[in-house]
Each structure stands twice: as C-alpha cells, then as structure tokens.
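Practice problem 4.
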C-alpha cells in the first residue's frame, strides 16, 4: 500500500487509521447500535394487545374538589383500536364519542367532550387517573341495559 506524504512530510489525513484506532471506533459504533435498542420498549410490548375492552362498562368518575359522577362507556374493540360512547348520568352535554387504543393491558382513550387518559384493565375492571385530577373506576356489565 502506498502512503502519501502530508503537508509537513508526515502521513496525509487521508491515510488509513491505525489498527488500535480502528478497533476503538468499531467498539464505539457497536456500543451505540446495541445501546440505542435498549433504551426503547421492545416492539412486541408496544403492539401486544392482551385485553379485550369490548362491552358496557359502568362506574364512577371522581373529579378532585368537585364531585363523583356515574359514567357508562360502551366500547367496541378491533385489534388494538377502540371506539365507543361515554355517557354521564348528570352532564348529558359532556357525553359523546370515545376513541382509543389498547397497548398491553392499558386502554388509552380520548373523549372529545370529557376526560382523556389511560385505564389499567384487570379482567372485568378498569381504573386510572388523569392529569386534570380525575379518577375513573369501571366494571364491565354483564346485564343489558
């Protein structure tokens, strides 16, 4: 291999790296590749659906410093996607459509007129809290209304 002389008579900048430098850069590159994958959730965890929230769920919505209200969510699930309705017993103007997704055992939802958040699903029960200070506890109904 022919080496070119640099401006001061030494090695040119375009010359190959020494073997110890190559080894160091290979180690750094390998660490970055493997380290970047460890900081994220596994793709299986992000896409795995372990619960089915289809059905009618009844329970309470408690708002900090306000009151507790009876609520009903009627949900239909296809894969990870969930659509449905949220109804309040006292605030009919706040009732409306709900959309969301299931990831693992958590149902993440958004109500266009009410709370948005995530509920942990445990069999026929769901519960969770939202950033706005609300807490929701629901139980799947076995009776038709």
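Answer key:
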């Amino acid at each position: 291999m022919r080496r070119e002389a640099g401006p001061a008579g030494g090695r040119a900048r375009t010359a190959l790296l020494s073997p110890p430098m190559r080894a160091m850069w290979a180690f750094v590159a390998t660490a970055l590749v493997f380290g970047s994958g460890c900081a994220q959730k596994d793709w299986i965890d992000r896409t795995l659906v372990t619960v089915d929230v289809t059905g009618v769920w009844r329970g309470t919505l408690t708002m900090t410093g306000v009151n507790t209200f009876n609520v009903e969510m009627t949900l239909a699930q296809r894969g990870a996607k969930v659509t449905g309705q949220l109804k309040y017993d006292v605030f009919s103007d706040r009732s409306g459509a709900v959309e969301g997704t299931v990831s693992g055992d958590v149902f993440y939802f958004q109500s266009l007129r009410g709370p948005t958040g995530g509920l942990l699903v445990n069999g026929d029960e769901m519960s969770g809290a939202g950033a706005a200070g609300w807490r929701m506890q629901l139980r799947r109904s076995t009776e038709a209304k």
